[in-house]
Design a protein that fits this description.
Layout lengths: L10 H12 L3 E6 L5 H10 L7 E6 L27 H10 L5 E6 L6 H13 L3 E7 L6 H8 L3 E5 L5 H12 L5 H11 L3 H14 L2 E4 L2 E4 L7 H11 L4 H13 L2 E2 H7 L2 H9 L3 E5 L4 E5 L2 H10 L2 H17 L5 H14 L5 H13 L3 H13 L3 H14 L3 H9 L6 H18 L6 H11 L5 H13 L3 H7 L7 H17 L6 H10 L10 H15 L3 H19 L3 H17 L3 H14 L8 H14 L3 H13 L11 H10 L5 H18 L2 H13 L7 H10 L3 H15 L2 H14 L2 H17 L3 H15 L20 H11 L4 H8 L3 H15 L4 H8 L2
Parallel strand pairs: 1-4, 1-5, 2-3, 3-4
Antiparallel strand pairs: 6-7, 8-10, 9-10
Helix pairs in contact: 1-2, 4-5, 6-7, 7-8, 10-12, 10-13, 10-14, 11-14, 14-15, 15-16, 16-17, 16-18, 17-18, 18-19, 18-20, 19-20, 20-21, 20-22, 21-22, 22-23, 22-24, 23-24, 24-25, 24-26, 25-26, 26-27, 26-28, 26-34, 27-28, 28-29, 28-30, 29-30, 30-31, 30-32, 31-32, 32-33, 33-34, 34-35, 34-36, 35-36, ...
Length: 860
């Protein structure tokens, strides 16, 4: 790992640096230490075209700054008093040697001694040489260097911290494989976008075994180790810190976000102000109160690492007392105090600990939530603590432990009986834990309470819909309108019911009603996530895959901020996202997303196995990766959890394309028809469309054209209509209808389907004897297929872009860009007639009629 560290991203800045160093003067890069200035400068120099100025590299240091011309000392001869009347000229002649233009690359130019700084300015301003220098943000810079951009010909270019995408690309290159998104995000946040810190974290993680490869994907487990080298780097960045400010840093590290009022009470105003001035902490305001946060995440790691366990406990106890003294005016204060008491070993208030557990669970910090729930239970929290702990256990896949905890408790009244039953039913349905049936649990509770329980009815609708028992879900939803928490449960069930059935077009309306039905969504286990995932299914089932991706991207951001600790939920979400990417033709991205989801699954039987592993098998099959597709599909089937048959149905769809790897079309068609029969039996509208359409894609449209037409008449949305149109056109050999369908698929973002429809259109044109139209359709199909990241299907076999000569490709590209024949002729130093002849040949080979068609053909 100490070898070559990859460079990624920052393409725009790299290009700008290249432009500036090719122009008179040059550029000065500025940014924080370790942000990557030196690497950027080195990469920019490597990209310079040959034949440019001679490159001279020097690196300023504090030691060399003690001597005149110290940084250039290795280039200068022994001083001779006879030639030292003009030191600048003497140094210039020794360095340049009259050898022409020079590009002077100066690292850490803020450390230059006055003579060296003056020499750099002289060479650039008075002799016309160029410079590419780096200076550290916040450090004093010699006046001669500062004048290069203040008064002289150079440009000052700020270097910002790495973005998450850039950091992830670097990690992938450094580790040699895909990296779990949460791992990349955690390392990026901890490093603060600092390239040097990122590298040290990776070095420490791989050396300590915290960063390792699991099932083909790199992930981080456990705490962040603070190696001596990393500690030295952080201390160097922070500088000498007085004891009072170190105390401020430790308090903020252990308590952020920490209100400024108790922070100042525990230290002093002067110490807080000093820590802010030094950049150790920063203050933020929400308009009502001021909070203190760390100036850099690694400052907190260092402060926590330097404190003994006893000091940490004392500090947390002091924080809890200080915030309690303010009256805990914000709801978050009570949560913080509960956490600090837990960490310090102080006596715990059961009610506060349960409240803290619920808040931690809502944020899916499930490790903290479990510890708070256990502390509350140990402190006599009773029913509330037991239900809170069970919820955490279910969410972390420990259904057996949670069920034992709840099965051994009896509610003291109807409300507790209902709450226990609702939690058990939810948990069994979520984890697939099968000792008890969730609907039976609800029925038993309903018989134990007086009257009809709205919450049991609502939960029955949710669980029934989630398990695919649509008739029972509809029955539960036919009674009087439910409100409050019961209404929220019912709304989740109604949204799931819409998404998976032929009513998919109403999913968004159901979701909006669900979110407006109840204000306490954070207090309902998994409810919001269930609704959001149902929205994804509903949009996919109606053909709104671009809209589904928008929802998925928003959920990615929210999961990154809130839900990263919930492996089960994140796995499910990633499985849905992989499905969307596959439908968009982003097959390689789908493969990697599914791999990441699979890496989140627990070993053995696990919820969402069929979704994640099924999508992984599907993408692998489309890419021709038989060695991965076949065993992955087998695992998807073997590891599926009871009650997840609905969510895991994508594994059935994947089986068609794994079968197609054998090259035996009949086996794949049989698999698709069997999948369609199962989808129809279960009432899965969208998945029935996909399964029947797979038969069309495999070249047997006549078998399913009538069924798809009938289905399109019942379902809303573009998907069923487009698939029915594809089937009808293919069955009838109607090339024009197939091209119309291809355009519809393309407009919907279903690029792979569009490519296959164009391929079918080309075949229909050939059968009709229209060779020119066939060539055009085949070329359009090839262009669309090229966007699908290597996907292979039987329909795409034989698609190829028509061969053009080098000159024809050149003329075609210029014509597609909007140039006239005369402009092209002038540019290529040929005649207008020659250009016209080339275009006639291009039109004939591509099957197009004019420049507009040509531009459409050549534009990706």
């Amino acid at each position: 790992m100490r070898g070559h560290w990859p460079f990624a991203g920052r393409a725009a800045l790299l290009g700008e640096i290249g432009e500036r160093v090719r122009a008179p003067g040059g550029a000065v890069l500025t940014g924080d230490a370790g942000v990557g200035k030196s690497r950027l400068a080195a990469e920019a120099v490597e990209l310079l075209p040959p034949g440019g100025p001679r490159v001279l590299r020097v690196a300023a240091t504090r030691a060399a700054a003690r001597l005149p011309f110290g940084v250039f000392g290795h280039l200068l001869p022994v001083p001779d008093v006879r030639t030292m009347s003009n030191p600048l000229r003497w140094a210039e002649e020794a360095i340049t040697g009259g050898a022409g233009a020079l590009l002077l690359v100066v690292d850490d130019a803020h450390l230059l001694d006055p003579a060296s700084a003056a020499l750099v300015k002289h060479l650039v301003v008075h002799r016309g040489h160029r410079v590419l220098a780096t200076v550290r943000e916040g450090e004093p810079v010699p006046d001669a260097v500062r004048s290069l951009w203040k008064e002289g010909p150079c440009s000052l270019l700020p270097v910002a911290p790495l973005t998450l995408a850039e950091s992830a690309a670097i990690l992938r290159g450094a580790l040699g494989g895909p990296v779990l998104h949460y791992t990349a995000a955690r390392l990026w946040r901890t490093a603060g976008g600092n390239a040097l810190f990122l590298r040290e974290l990776v070095e420490a993680g791989t050396a300590g075994g915290h960063l390792a490869e699991h099932t083909g994907i790199w992930r981080w487990d456990g705490d962040l180790p603070m190696t001596p080298r990393l500690q030295d780097l952080i201390r160097h960045r922070a500088g000498e810190v007085p004891a009072a400010e170190r105390e401020v840093l430790r308090l903020v590290a252990l308590g952020e976000p920490l209100a400024a009022e108790p922070l100042a009470r525990l230290t002093s105003d002067a110490a807080v102000e000093g820590a802010v001035a030094r950049g150790l902490i920063r203050l933020t305001s929400d308009g009502r109160r001021i909070d203190a946060c760390l100036g850099h995440p690694l400052y907190g790691e260092l402060a926590r690492g330097e404190a003994s366990p006893l000091l940490i406990r004392r500090t947390l106890a002091a924080l809890a007392a200080a915030v309690e003294a303010t009256g805990m005016r914000r709801a978050a204060d009570r949560f913080q105090v509960a956490v600090w008491r837990l960490e310090s070993g102080a006596p715990q208030d059961p009610e506060g600990a349960v409240d803290g557990c619920l808040r931690a669970t809502a944020a899916y910090d499930l490790g903290l939530a479990e510890r708070l729930a256990r502390a509350a239970l140990a402190a006599g929290g009773g029913h509330g603590a037991a239900v809170a702990l069970a919820r955490v256990l279910y969410l972390t896949g420990r259904g057996a432990e949670a069920d034992v905890l709840l099965a051994g408790r009896e509610g003291r009244d109807d409300a507790e009986i209902v709450e226990l039953a609702a939690m058990r039913a939810f948990g069994i349905g979520l984890t697939g834990f099968s000792v008890a049936d969730p609907l039976t649990v609800l029925d038993e509770a309903a018989g134990a309470v007086a009257g009809e329980s709205p919450e049991i009815t609502g939960m029955r609708a949710w669980i029934s819909a989630q398990r695919g028992d649509f008739a029972r879900a509809r029955h539960a939803l036919t009674g009087p309108a439910l409100t409050g928490r019961a209404g929220a449960y019912a709304a989740v069930g109604r949204t799931i019911l819409a998404a998976y059935t032929e009513d998919a077009a109403t999913t968004e309306t159901s979701a909006e009603a669900a979110f407006s039905a109840y204000d306490g969504w954070d207090a309902i286990a998994d409810a919001e996530t269930s609704v959001q995932c149902a929205r994804l299914v509903g949009r996919v089932s109606t053909g709104d895959v671009t809209g589904a991706l928008a929802v998925a991207d928003e959920m990615t951001r929210r999961f990154e901020a809130r839900f990263a600790g919930w492996n089960l939920g994140v796995a499910g979400f990633l499985g849905h996202r992989a499905q969307i990417l596959r439908l968009l033709g982003r097959t390689r991205e789908a493969l990697e997303t599914a791999r990441e989801g699979a890496a989140r699954l627990t070993d053995g039987t696990a919820g969402f196995s069929g979704l994640c592993l099924g999508e992984l098998a599907h993408a692998a099959a489309l890419l021709g990766l038989r060695a991965e597709a076949e065993p992955t599909l087998a695992a998807a089937v073997a590891r599926g959890a009871p009650g997840f048959e609905l969510i895991d149905f994508p594994a059935r769809l994947a089986a068609t394309w794994v079968a197609a790897l054998d090259g035996d079309g009949s086996g794949a068609v049989e698999a698709a028809l069997a999948c369609a029969a199962e989808a129809e039996r279960r009432g899965l509208g969208g998945y029935l469309v996909f399964a029947l359409h797979d038969v069309v894609r495999l070249g047997r449209a006549a078998l399913v054209a009538d069924r798809l037409a009938a289905l399109a008449g019942r379902m809303g949305g573009a998907l069923a209509e487009l698939c029915a149109g594809h089937a009808a056109g293919a069955a009838a050999g109607d090339a024009i209808a197939l091209e119309r369908t291809a355009r519809g698929f393309q407009n919907a973002g279903l690029v792979l389907y569009a490519a296959e429809a164009e391929a079918h259109a080309a075949a229909a044109y050939e059968r009709a004897g229209s060779a020119r139209a066939a060539r055009a359709a085949r070329a359009r199909g090839w262009r669309l297929a090229a966007r699908c990241q290597g996907a292979r299907t039987p329909a795409l076999v034989g698609l190829a872009f028509p061969e053009l000569t080098a000159r024809q490709r050149e003329v075609a590209g210029l014509a597609a860009s909007g140039l006239s024949n005369r402009e092209i002729a002038t540019l290529l130093h040929t005649s207008v007639r020659t250009v016209s002849n080339h275009l006639v040949a291009v039109y004939a080979r591509l099957g197009v009629n004019d420049r507009a068609d040509l531009a459409d053909m050549l534009t990706p």
